[in-house]
Design a protein that fits this description.
This protein is α+β, with helices and mostly antiparallel strands and 179 residues long. 37% of the residues lie in helices and 24% in strands.
């Protein structure tokens, strides 16, 4: 089965450095096949016979902790789940070239409680838009993600769920690479 994993918070401001070649080798050492990485933020495509994502997540996180002596949360999804994220994009009129870095997709480790979703909605200021769909948060920041209060850390804290964020261009590219 084909999977895409995204690592949270590596190679940011010189923290938790992991070279992609080393990460690829780590995944191959776990017995995964057709391993490839995309950019330096910890996006890994791989295949394995396992169908259950939960043990894969734990296995990868433990291997990273053992190899690097720091913890890195890992989100593992099937390629079909990743493609569904794109198919369910809730914003109209989005052009990948123009808006691809202004639309963010936050992958949550679980589904947040409705009261948390209702509470975070009060922080969304026009023209920004935020939609929570299960374990995915879609965020459109027409003025730029860097100017938004709705950062990965903020979303994670307000929803009380571990999260990692990628822009729409990266999510799209990962789906393309997965075939």
């Amino acid at each position: 089965m084909k999977f895409i994993s995204i690592l949270r918070g590596i190679n940011v401001s010189g923290q938790k450095k992991i070279k992609m070649a080393d990460l690829k080798a780590l995944y191959e050492g776990l017995g995964f096949s057709n391993v490839s990485t995309y950019i330096q933020s910890g996006n890994v495509l791989f295949e394995c016979e396992q169908n259950d994502k939960s043990p894969l997540k734990t296995q990868i996180e433990q291997a990273i902790t053992k190899a690097y002596s720091f913890d890195v949360p890992v989100d593992v999804r099937t390629v079909d789940e990743f493609k569904a994220v794109l198919a369910n994009l809730p914003f109209d009129g989005i052009e990948l070239e123009k808006d691809g870095t202004q639309v963010m997709v936050t992958f949550l480790a679980g589904e947040p409680h409705q009261d948390k979703i209702d509470a975070i909605a009060t922080y969304v200021k026009a023209p920004e838009k935020l939609v929570v769909d299960g374990s995915v948060v879609y965020l459109h920041c027409p003025n730029g993600y860097g100017k938004s209060k709705l950062t990965n850390v903020f979303i994670e804290k307000k929803l009380a769920v571990c999260a990692t964020t990628r822009n729409l261009k990266s999510v799209t590219k990962l789906c393309e690479l997965a075939g």
